Amino acid sequence: MGKDNEKMKLKGRLNATLRKADGTTRVVERDNLVVDTGIDFLAAALAAPSARPNVLSHIAVGSGVVAVDAGDIELDTELSRQTATYDHDAGTTSFTLTATFDPGEGTGDITEAGVLNAASTGTLFNRVVFSAIPKEAGDSLDITFTFTFTPT
């Protein structure tokens, strides 16, 4: 291994695109925090001899405004959760998880999001809080989390 690969940092970034029923869009981008349960998840997924966790499979959105804390284990006020699509190009240092909240799903002022490994409950990997994205019944919201490993 090269010296650059000896110490790695994991950085997460949210990209949320609201598509209004009238065709206008709004984009929110924000760094997020991999929480303590996310670090535990990584350790277990990489090296646990048994009882490995389910893969990261869902993105949740909510209306909570409590500041992100490393000890978070769930969203503050979850509104909706959708199955995420995983993407990674071999040999690159990042991967993405993407989900769409169609009209009628996750309606309200969206102010938080995170990735989990189950359709309900599950392990919270990361969390981010941001200025309200007002999602009305006819709007759709695309959420992409990009996670990048970088040398420290």
Describe this entry's structure for a reader:
The protein has 152 residues and is mostly beta strands. It has one domain (8-151). The protein is 8% helix and 51% strand. It is built from 1 helix and 9 strands. It has one helix at 36-47, and strands at residues 8-19, 25-34, 58-62, 78-83, 85-87, 94-101, 108-116, 124-135, 140-151. Strands 4-3-7-8-2-1-9-6-5 form a 9-stranded antiparallel β-sheet. A hairpin with a 5-residue loop joins strand 1 (8-19) and strand 2. It is globular. The two termini are 15 Å apart. The relative contact order is 0.31.
Major pleated sheet: 9 strands, antiparallel
Which term fits the overall shape? globular
- Terminus-to-terminus distance: 15 Å
Count of folded domains: 1
Structure, briefly:
This protein has one helix spanning 36-47; strands spanning 8-19, 25-34, 58-62, 78-83, 85-87, 94-101, 108-116, 124-135, 140-151. By secondary structure, the chain is mostly beta strands.
Kindly list the characteristics that best describe this protein:
152 residues; mainly beta; 9 strands
Helices and strands, with pairings:
Blueprint: E1 8-19, E2 25-34, H1 36-47, E3 58-62, E4 78-83, E5 85-87, E6 94-101, E7 108-116, E8 124-135, E9 140-151
Antiparallel strand pairs: 1-2, 1-9, 2-8, 3-4, 3-7, 5-6, 6-9, 7-8
